Amino acid sequence: MSVTLKYLRALSDPTRLRIVALLERDELSVNELQEITRMGQSRISTHLGLLLDSGLVQSRREGKRTYYKLSPQSAAAAGEFIQLAIRGARELPEQAGDQINLRRILNRRGEQAQVYFNQVAGRFDRVYGPGRSWQAFGHLLLRIVPPLVVADLGSGEGLLSELLARRCKRVIAVDNSEKIVAFGAAKARKNNLKNLEFRTGDLQDPPVEAGSVDLVILSQALHHAEEPARAVAGAYRILRPGGQVMILDLARHKFEQAHELYGDRWLGFAESDLERWLEEAGFKKTEINIVAREEQPPHFETLLASAQK
Ligand SMILES: C[S@@+](CC[C@H](N)C(=O)[O-])C[C@H]1O[C@@H](n2cnc3c(N)ncnc32)[C@H](O)[C@@H]1O
After folding, report:
1. What's the pTM value of the predicted model, to 2 decimals?
2. Does residue 166 or residue 202 have the better pLDDT?
């Protein structure tokens, strides 16, 4: 059958004219078409089937729903036919009601999101949102970081080191637990992170060449050091002039069980301790803030200290 005949046949019915006129505005599901036209599901499905066969309409599945829209190819090839169909639909008595119902349904789609966000406003940061995670935010923030050479001291298995290695020029992860280093190195190999090197060593005297790195990170590691001031001085030694140190650690707390539970040597630090050690090591431009507070007892607080060599 010729294409023209196929289009003419598909459009030679008032219900199909109504459907084409509705799909001209937006894609719609069968349920939505039912609600707009007040017709039964099987009737709508039959007409949609005929429009699909003609090539004037195409469908897209999203979960359990199927959405229908005018096919972009036919809009080019069959533009005249579609315009005729829309004109034809305007002559039908159902047209006014169809258009009012269509507007209501399209508005409702937008409102669903608005209603949800209005409900969670004020506590949005604390409610679950699909795909919103600190790990994802971390990846985003890393894209704006220049390609640095980083030393992650007391790295653990490399949660942060791995993230950094995806962006940075080179990452040296130092930890004094041989088991952790072996595990972290194997994981880096598995993830093909060739610029991430694990080294066994003490963060108070890191096995890293003097003046060789742009950034030193001590994330929840300083409170394990016997002499935190020595670790801060060690960070200064391995940084190039102008390089930065970033320390994430617990603010001073009274949760004694941290010694047994987490093997912590120190119960966090006062901001003034960190400031003094940084200054004594030779750092400038020190900034220290509380950046997180836990909601659960014992309400640990996290300090972020940064300074420049
Ligand atoms: C709480 S974990 C922090 C891991 C990682 N930085 C993070 O933020 O996910 C502390 C790590 O420091 C390591 N560590 C403790 N004392 C150390 C020392 N003196 N020198 C090097 N690493 C040390 C531990 O083996 C452990 O992996």
Report:
1. 0.73
2. 202
